[in-house]
Amino acid sequence: VQLQASGGGLVQPGGSLRLSCAASGSIFSINVMGWYRQAPGKQREWVATISTGGTTNYRDSVKGRFTISRDNAKNMVYLQMNNLKPEDTAVYYCYLDATSRRYWGQGTQVTVSS
Fold it and tell me: Is the Cβ–Cβ distance between 23 and 14 less than 8 Å?
């Protein structure tokens, strides 16, 4: 399984970005996909998760601002990020959990700065 993340960039506080992650390879039909992030000098932290059936979960600091979604037919997961704050600055990694394994994408940089 390979994951390719894209959509990061530089945005001003209050702005929006949409991250995408494409999964390819031998993908089990039932899986969980989501996003982590890692800021400079900090540990990687979980951001959001979505199941094949569409159940979502978010870390408290992004609730109401971030929306995770997926397209099962295309094996894609998205993270719509609105009202971005400087503390959202990080490298964002997508992941896929299936058959007791976790697969990671390569990361995409999100920088929130004026």
Answer: no
Question: What does residue 87 show for φ and ψ, rounded to 5 degrees?
Answer: -75, -5
3-class SS of residue 42: coil
The pLDDT of residue 44 is above 90: yes
Chain centre distance of CA 72: 15
Q: What's the token pair of residue 47? A: 């951001």
Q: Which two tokens stand for residue 58?
A: 């978010």
Whole-number pLDDT of residue 31? 86
Neighbours of 26 (CB within 10 A): 7
Q: Are 58 and 68 in contact (CB under 8 A)?
A: yes
CB 109 within 8 A of CB 8: yes
pLDDT at 63 over 90: yes
Tell me how far apart the alpha carbons of residues 13 and 76 are, in angstroms, rounded to a whole number.
27
61 SS3 class: helix
